[in-house]
Structure formats: structure tokens, C-alpha cells
Amino acid sequence: MAAESTENEVLAQELESLGGMVHAVESRLADVERVIEGLEAAARTTARALEEVSSHLGLGVQSNAPSRVRGNLMRLDLARADDGDQRREHARRRLAHRS
Fold first, then answer.
1. DSSP string, 45-87
2. What distance in Å separates the CA atoms of residue 9 and residue 16, rounded to the nearest whole number?
3. Model-level pTM?
4. Taking a C-beta distance cutoff of 8 angstroms, is the pair 47, 68 a contact?
5. Is the dihedral of CA 83, 87, 92, 94 positive or negative?
6. Helices (H) and strands (E) in the chain, counts
7. Burial class (CB in 10 A: 0-12, 13-18, 19+), 35
8. Angle at 76 between CA 73 and CA 82, to 5 degrees
């Protein structure tokens, strides 16, 4: 009986340790997701700025680099839009509108 109790205590300690590790990984993942969102926002801003600069330079249709960047970002939005139908539909509409 004492050996069983000791084994249970060891298992409880291991589970507690693993729980702490899981919590740390979840916290780090949340940090990474926030950084990714910031990078995506910066990329969208850059794509808009490139589009505006190209229109001011009279490049218009000839320069499709900004639209390619925007299209890639919208495809990324679609890939990440697994958190709900509304967001997925919104990304599809934006992609269709830009094409």
C-alpha cells in the first residue's frame, strides 16, 4: 500500500510538472500568434502603400506586384480563417473584390 501511495505521489508531481510546461507552451504560442498578426497587418499596410505609390507613378495596371502581395495576404487570411464562417466569408469577398 505504501509503494502504491508513493507511486501516486510521483505521478501527481509529474502531472503537475507537465501541466506547467503545457501552460508555458500555450503562453508562448499566444505570443507568437500576436506577432504573426502584427506582421500580417504590416504586410497589408505595405501592400496598400505600394499600390498607392504605383498609382501615383502612373504604373497602374502594368505594376501588379502590390496586387500579388495583397492576393497572397488574402489567401493567407483564408487559410487562417478557420475560426468561423463569418471571417472566412469576409476574406473570400475581399479576395473576389481584389481579383
1. HHHHHHHHHHHHTT-GGG--HHHHHHHHHHHHHHHH-TT-HHH
2. 10
3. 0.49
4. no
5. negative
6. 3, 0
7. exposed
8. 140
C-alpha cell at 78: 483564408
Q: Is residue 51 a contact partner of residue 70, using CB atoms and an 8 Å limit?
A: yes
Using the structure block, give the residue that is written with the C-alpha cell 502590390.
66
10-residue mean pLDDT profile of the chain (99 residues): values are 80 91 93 93 87 72 56 66 60 64
Separation of alpha carbons 56 and 97, rounded Å: 22
Q: Count structural domains, the chain.
A: 1
- The number of C-alpha atoms within 13 Å of 7 and in the hemisphere containing its C-beta is 4
Residue type, 61: V
What lies within 8 Å, CB to CB, of 90 at 6+ separation is 81
Range of the domain at 30: 2-98
